[in-house]
Amino acid sequence: MKIIRQIALYFAASVMLVAVCAGIMFNRIHALNVAHQRMAQEWKEMRILGRFLDDVENLIGLISADENQSRLSDITVAGLKNLVPALEDLREESVRPESFEEQSHMMVERKDFISIQQQFMSFVSETQLMQLKSGPIAVEARSDILKELELLKKSAGDLQDFYIDQVEAASAYAQRARQQIFYQIIIVLVVFLLLLAFVTSWFIQLVKKSTESMIKHEQGMTIGLLAQSLAHEIRNPLGIICVSASAICEKFSKESEERELIGGIVTEAKRIGSLLEQLLVLSRSQKELVSCDPTQIIKDVVGLMAPLCEKKKVQMSFRDQADVKEVLWDKNQIKQMLINILLNSIDAATGGTIEIVSISKGGWYHLTVADNGSGFTPHAREHAFEPFFSTKNAGTGLGLFVAKNIVESHRGRLTIDPHFSSGARLEVFLPLTETA
To answer: Bridge partners of 72?
Structure first.
């Protein structure tokens, strides 16, 4: 379930990241689209304004080039009258509200156009231009028309300059939007590759841990099957060897070479017996959970180790700081785990001290066993929990391996404190969720 939650978390984070990046990208693409719309609209208005300016300039040319200075031709009169609907067309496009236009931009267009329209419409009203017909015209009226057309041309030119500036601004904005989209694509790609690398690394570590767990499980099963197959076959002859060798040993004097040799046989036979006991512990795959007092279990084991501590001249102390009175444990397995750890500590701390401390914190029963022996070398700490690894000449190499398997079968963990410099300190963490 933990792995599934982690995968779900990474998937949700990836989806959220992609959604955020997509949102930023779509925002920039929308901005680019708006800029293009604005450019298209400005060009459209510029074309209409350009045609209007062409009409004004043509009229100015016609009136200025009229051979008969006192008459207006039909073409000139028609052109003057057509300026009014041309202004209407220009007004319709120039002041039309667009969703992509800023309010200030619209206000400038409206102001410039109104200046043109009001000025010319005032002239139309005063001179009754719409009723004007071809034929004789006063020199003053002709001069007024030319003057008004020049002013109209100037005002329209100013508006055209404004449109040109707006097109350039929209073009620059579109260019910036394109650059931002390009940079964002690169950033999204880099983030995606980093996320992919992280997930790949995490998946490789997950496979590695799963493989190591399977290997350890297979080792335990192999050792358990080996123990079940050989334990009963070896125990009986081994017991006979021990008893017979001890009986023979008693017939020789303490200083004799024969007694020393036979004593070696007895010692090695007992070591084989200890190895068999550890193998039998591994072969017990099922836990027998019972309600028990963890403090009492530790006190029982400390009492059991007292004679050995006295022989090795080791001072052992236990401080109970855990406010826990009842848990569901396999009592015998937990005792065996503590015995294995304490046997290692007693051998390492001969003539020294061992301190056992228990506390409860964050849903865990935390037990530490610290001694002032020589401690673990980095190599020994790395391989301490591997089966048959031992730094002692007479060690079986199964004590800590069995202890770790017992703790893990209770959903806990057993670790060596790498920062403890005054010897060795082992830490046992057992969950308190399975309380009675």
So the answer is: 135
Contact 32, 174 (CB under 8 A): yes
In whole angstroms, give the CA distance from residue 188 to residue 397.
52
419 plus 311 within the same structural domain: yes
Domain boundary among 152, 167, 201: 201
Q: Which residue has 């719309």 as its token pair?
A: 37
The conformation of residue 129, written as its DSSP 8-state character, comes to G
Same domain, 71 and 182: yes
pLDDT single digits (tens) 219-233: 666 766 666 666 666
Other beta carbons less than 10 A from residue 370's beta carbon: 20
At 137, give phi and psi (nearest 5°): -145, 140
Measured between alpha carbons, how far is 134 from 71 in angstroms, rounded to an integer? 7
How many domains, the chain?
Answer: 2
Helix, strand, or coil (residue 356): strand
**Nearest-CA neighbor of 24 among 175, 199, 198, 186?**
186
Q: What's the pLDDT at 27?
A: 75
Which sign does the torsion angle of CA 93, 94, 97, 100 carry?
positive
CATH classification at residue 131: 1.20.120
Residue 273 lies in a domain: no
Does 315 fall in a domain? yes
Residue (of 137, 167, 156, 124) closest to 55 by Cα position: 156
Cβ 140 vs Cβ 70: under 8 Å:
no
pLDDT in tens, 110-161: 566 666 666 666 666 555 555 555 555 555 667 777 777 787 787 777 777 7
Domain that holds residue 409: 286-431
Alpha-carbon distance of 198 to 132, in angstroms, equals 83
CATH of the domain at 320: 3.30.565.10
Residue 216 lies in a domain: no
Q: How many CB atoms lie within 10 A of CB 49?
A: 23
Q: Which of 139, 170, 201 is the last residue of a domain?
A: 201
In a domain, residue 340? The reply is yes
Helix (H, G, I), strand (E, B), or coil: what is residue 365? strand
Which amino acid, 423?
G
Residues ≥6 apart with Cβ < 8 Å to 73: 62, 66, 134
The rounded distance, in Å, linking the Cα atoms of 179 and 32 is 10
- For 316, the 3-state DSSP assignment is strand
Q: Are residues 181 and 297 in the same domain?
A: no
Assigned token pair, 430: 């057992």
Residues 170 and 23 in one domain: yes
- 297 and 338 Cβ atoms separated by less than 8 Å: yes
| Helices first, then strands: H and E counts in the chain | 9, 9
